[in-house]
Amino acid sequence: MDRRYRIRKDDGCISCMRCARECSFGAIEAGEDRTLILHHDKCVDCQRCVSFCPTGAIFITEDGNRFRGNGVFGESDMKEIFLQARTGGVLLSSMGAPGRNVPIYFDRMLLNASQVTNPSIDPLREPMETAVFLGQRPERIERDGSGRLVDNLPPHLELRTPIMFSAMSYGAISLNVHKALAAAAEKLGTYWNTGEGGLHESLYPYKRSTIVQVASGRFGVHATYLNTAAAIEIKIGQGAKPGIGGHLTGKKIIGDVSRTRMVPEGLDAISPAPHHDIYSIEDLAQLVMSIKETTDGRKPVIVKVAAVHNIAPIASGIARSGADIISIDGFRGGTGAAPKRIRDNVGIPIELAIAAVDQRLREERIRDRVSVIASGGIRNSSDVVKAIALGADAVSIGTAALCALGCHICASCHTGRCAWGLATQDPELTKRLDPEEGAARLGNLVKAWTSEIKEIMGGMGINSIEALRGNRRALKGVDLNAKELEILGIGYAGE
Amino acid sequence: MKREGEVRISSGCAISGIFCRDGRRIDGEAIRRSIAVMHNRSNGLGGGFAGYGIYPQYKDFYALHVLYDSQSAREEAERFLDRRFDIINLSKIPVRQTPKISDAPLIWRYFVTPLPHMLQDSQLDEDEYTSRTTIAINDTIPGAYVVSCGKDMGVFKAVGYPEDVADFYRLEEYEGYAWTAHGRYPTNTPGWWAGSHPFSLLDLSVVHNGEISSYDANRRSVEMHGYSCNLLTDTEVIAYILDYLTRKQGLTMKESSEVIAAPFWTTIASKDEEERKRLSYLRKMFSSFLITGPFSILVGFSGGMMALNDRLKLRSLVAAEKGRTVYFSSEEAAIRCIEPEPDRIWAPRGGEAVIVTLDGRKDGQTI
User: How far is CA B272 from CA A147, A458, B266, B279, in A?
Assistant: First the structure.
């Protein structure tokens, strides 16, 4: 009933059985006498077999033998109804919300460049600054008795490039992925984020590049954890599943995952929907303060929220809670597992959320008090530039980082059978990722994006990233209505 | 076609400045001759001057120079002023009729001091009270525009070539210790009197050559602090940023220059520890006010003047000294024509502010 793909092979097949060894979903099995047994219904189109076939003989096609739908009920609607009628269960999904029914605003905004009246700047010949500092700023300067400026800035995060790695928990993804992220972040001068599953002890040496997360389940949270980090993130919500908690199945709570999470082996790790000590904004302020006390006020505190309808006042409340940085995760943010209806229907796109939050914080004159991180569907360097021009200080990437490690967005993370060895704890699969090679690939990706960001900035005559932040005249819209332009705070192309 | 203030216009320009550190007051003829040399850097769509020390008999009062589109705008603005200030003196600013300057608005000058009870009720200092009042006039009274509101200084600007603007305003009849001038080359629109330079708030005035690429980031940040950028020009944004940094934050002019034309991080890293900390602090604390893209500016303020280039020096700016007099200009020729043999002539480096103050000022700001 869930059949979506057909596995085909042509005459090039040499019956090496490599595909059968690589397939972690049981779609390709080695039969007797080196024959392949194909279970089309189990194929998720992860492309692992295709990538590893030495003769290029295997290919995956979409199953043409499909329901036609009637224009109202589509094929997936019908399949989901059949599935739920059979099982009585909530539909699960993973990665970010797919499809373009909800506009991808990044694709409807175009960037500016200098011509004649001011010069573009060549990043190969002139300094081009991408360093970002995230944290609070006091309202006033202070001077000492002899008139010298006093450094009254609270602790900051220093990024050499405005790209960080999003929170992905150990448990949802493998330790090797964490190792790759941590090593890459350290080399790049940016940060990776533990997610809510704790920090494996072997990664403690990366503390200066690590952001540790405190989520509603408080998994793996202890004083050492909080102090083995550059910053602490309180996770209220994530873009893929605003308003609900998480559920890591007991099957994944084994060995080090159990120890790191501080959850008994085999027991489901369930993060409650809300933090049960945060039912209101003043409660958040108290948690921010407790974390600051635990860390002697030496580390910035980030509050991560999903982009929901009233995100602007929520962000304003967070800005006044004592938090140093607000992280906003948009509608398209990824997940290891989320109910499909939530993922595909709750929340708003990050572009609109960032624009609304930046504008609201400015109207309330507190934008410079906090920093803002945008995430949820950032696919490339121009998305980064556009997010910053809309008002973000920096962005974080999750799905794009996983793709650098091999992910093909088959959206089967919740099955725990990731053929690329990323979203799984099966030791046979996790060893498929070499953390060092993974770190190198992540490093290349961010380095490439940073070079492109410099190129784009130089074209606009901007030689420092802070001059891009909130610089909405760098953007013009196409195929947008007046209301969308108003919320994004940009003009129409040609205007 | 939309007029300035409704659209953002970029423009190329010429700037020039003279500062007498000994406080000697010179008439407006020298600055007129200097800016006239750079005639071809303007296109006749804007010229203007700021003079300091020009109203010694009224130096304790705010001098408001106001442009009106109509008598009704004047009446409304005067009613507005009358409720907030004691008007010590008011008059039309004397002008000379010249065919080269046309479509002149009504141009008035007021010497005022805040009404004591109004000032007290406002819980503001008199500078803030006066700046808010003038911003309110520009914001809310159609056809009225306050072009300057400082003490013992004034701005004279119009649509036309700068040398003609000087003739029009009879600048040779004023004497000041400091003068700045501007000739404008906007890239579109018919030009608007209020849109010419200098742009001024209280005693601060800015003339500017360039087009800043950080404009909207800077504008949206400075508007958080109670300014409203009605003209949509770079100059207005620069003036407001400097007013915010110096008057509201209490930075020195030099520190402000290290914010808007901040040294590159690589340069900061090469400094000794104390300087490194100081410069890093200023960049992090005021990152929203970093100005990128080409600019050369002359900033006039009470008792001083600052010349500053963007940190890549993407616009020309020359400085010279002769005795106690200092000259700044977009082109050396504009200095040589009024001072053929300066003691020293040099091109300040990008991002390095040249700040001059009247002799005897003890605020540590020196050339």
Answer: 19, 30, 13, 11
Segment of A24-33, A438-447, B222-231 carrying the highest mean pLDDT:
A438-447
Question: What integer is the mean pLDDT of A203-212?
Answer: 98
Contact B359, B21 (CB under 8 A): yes
A125 part of contact set with chain B, CB < 8 Å: no
Q: What is the dihedral of CA A401, A404, A408, A413, to 10 degrees?
A: -40
pLDDT (average), residues A60-85: 87
Does residue B13 have an active-site annotation? yes
pLDDT at B189: 55
A:B CB pairs within 8 Å:
105
ipTM, interface predicted TM-score of the complex: 0.91
Q: In angstroms, rounded to a whole number, what is the distance separating the alpha carbons of residues A196 and A167? A: 8
Distance in angstroms (rounded) separating the CA atoms of residues B122 and B125 = 8
Q: Do A464 and B293 touch (CB under 8 A)?
A: no
- Are the beta carbons of B58 and B88 closer than 8 angstroms? yes
| Residues on chain B bordering chain A, Cβ-to-Cβ distance under 8 angstroms | 8, 10-12, 187, 210-218, 220-221, 223-225, 249-251, 255, 262, 264-266, 277-278, 281-282, 284-285, 287-288, 290-294, 311-312, 314
Domain chopping of chain A, boundaries: 5-89, 132-492
Indicate the CATH number for domain A132-492: 3.20.20.70
Per-residue pLDDT of A118-158, as tens digits, reads 889 999 999 999 999 999 999 999 999 999 999 999 999 99
Q: Give the closest-approach CA distance of B167 to chain A in angstroms.
A: 30
Strand partners, A56: none
Longest CA pairwise span in chain A (Å): 88
Distance from the A313 Cα atom to the nearest Cα atom in chain B, whole angstroms: 17
Q: Are B284 and A117 inside 8 Å of each other by CB?
A: no
CATH of domain A5-89: 3.30.70.20
Cβ within 8 Å of residue A213, ≥6 positions away = A167, A169, A193, A194, A195, A196, A232, A233, A234, A235, A304
Quickly count: other Cβ atoms within 10 Å of residue B60's Cβ: 11
